[in-house]
Amino acid sequence: MFLRVSTKASKVIGVIHYFTFLLWLLDPDYLKLWLEIFISPYERCLDVDFEKPPSRPEELPPVLTLLPDNILQVLRHQLLQCVQKASDGLEPEQQNLALLLLKFLIIICRNLANVEEIGTCSYINHIITMTTLYIQQLKVKTKEKELVDQSQAEEFVRHALAFCESLYDPYRNWRHGICR
């Protein structure tokens, strides 16, 4: 059963997110900080272990209207930059940002009121492109690449699958079926 956040608490959270977002406008490093702060209380929504039955988060993530204005456009722009840089190989900091953006989208989609808006944007195209690049990177078996830690690429791919699940099977019917 989902617990609903009170309207007053939602407004306070929205104001806090808005001011953090304004700080990000002054310094891009704050976007990463803002995402980390936002994601932290909703970490349980990021259920990427597909071998066990899905869990039900106790808290419902906020609806998009409670988030800072233009956050989706900013995140789409950042994700597009990550996609453009991914073909040349992302630096660890960029990989971390791409993963944070993906986690944010998964959390937002766990509130079913947000799924349609996220699903109609270009996020899925960017995520699929990056996932394809990561899978190709994981498939290459050169000695140089075998020495490099691939855990971040694997983690991104798992989260990309969870993002697709949140868009196309938000009730997790498929996962419930295979875990029986």
UniProtKB/TrEMBL annotation:
Protein name in the entry: Neurobeachin-like 1
